[in-house]
């Protein structure tokens, strides 16, 4: 199936289809020089399938992990594009997860002030969320996504078949972003997490459809798009406080959501889903340290931060909380009502 993200001249198609990786020419102009960027954990088989369909491609690998979303890696990739004499007419294809998409997308947004960027997500997290919407970024030290741009891809190709090479931890990590999407916008998506078997293609399709609509309504996060940050205010802070490679992004978002689910029955439901997904418990934390990171959140103002709360599945409340109010939320802890 195909969906279009309607953004005027930045509109693009999203293909969601088993086997889609075998016919990328349907949405990618492959008759030009193409830099394929993937981290070193993306299996060769996926990279080769894509490279073999391009007329003139070269592959750039970088070390897997959040640590690669840094200035050094960003610069190294840009240098390699220049060494390969990439021009403004050429393009980048990212194959991988959220880190690969964020980093390669920011390289694409920056090289010669912007070249075409295509995303072929190969993790659940990137297939349900990060590949769509054009947020591209690197981290600065332990501040997450603090340097970046909005740079929409020209096309996104989602092939659920490529998920077969992922570890179950990676699958579950990604599913958290889909659960997040359900909690803020789509109760049926939440129900899917309680079925006997998890229907991944359906979870992906429903998540991306919500994401597409939110991005169409608010591309640059002036208002509504902030709801996609449910769980991220405290989640990003935990991710930073524990070192960016201790917990996975989705695991931290799961922890962060608990602080702002404001209904006991819903929280119990969500905790059962967390058990099923084998997610880690919220570790001990220093409130001062988390507050330090929260103050640098992109949703922060001078003394407050916009947070997303959920009282019933499929609906959100956007609220400005003072730092003191956030502090008392942290004092109460994630498991209290
Ligand atoms: O696309 C968005 O908008 C999101 O907020 C999706 C988030 O799940 C994603 O993790 C995003 O990268 C975080 O955004 P940030 O603005 O807090 O860096």
From TrEMBL:
Coiled coil: none
InterPro entries: Dehydroquinate_synthase, DHQ_synth_AroB, DHQ_synth_fam, DHQS/DOIS_N, DHQS_C
GO terms of molecular function: 3-dehydroquinate synthase activity; metal ion binding; nucleotide binding
Co-factor requirement: Zn(2+); NAD(+); Co(2+)
GO cellular component: cytoplasm
GO BP of this protein: amino acid biosynthetic process; aromatic amino acid family biosynthetic process; chorismate biosynthetic process
Ranges for domain 3-dehydroquinate synthase N-terminal: 61-172
Domain named 3-dehydroquinate synthase C-terminal: residues: 174-300
EC number: 4.2.3.4
Record's catalysed reaction(s): 7-phospho-2-dehydro-3-deoxy-D-arabino-heptonate = 3-dehydroquinate + phosphate
Keywords: Amino-acid biosynthesis, Aromatic amino acid biosynthesis, Cobalt, Cytoplasm, Lyase, Metal-binding, NAD, Nucleotide-binding, Zinc
Enzyme class: lyase
SUPFAM superfamilies cross-referenced by the UniProt entry: Dehydroquinate synthase-like
Compartments, record wording: Cytoplasm
Pathway assigned to this chain's UniProt record: Metabolic intermediate biosynthesis; chorismate biosynthesis; chorismate from D-erythrose 4-phosphate and phosphoenolpyruvate: step 2/7
PANTHER family assigned: 3-DEHYDROQUINATE SYNTHASE (PTHR43622), 3-DEHYDROQUINATE SYNTHASE, CHLOROPLASTIC (PTHR43622:SF7)
Sequence similarity: Belongs to the sugar phosphate cyclases superfamily. Dehydroquinate synthase family.
Protein name listed in UniProt: 3-dehydroquinate synthase
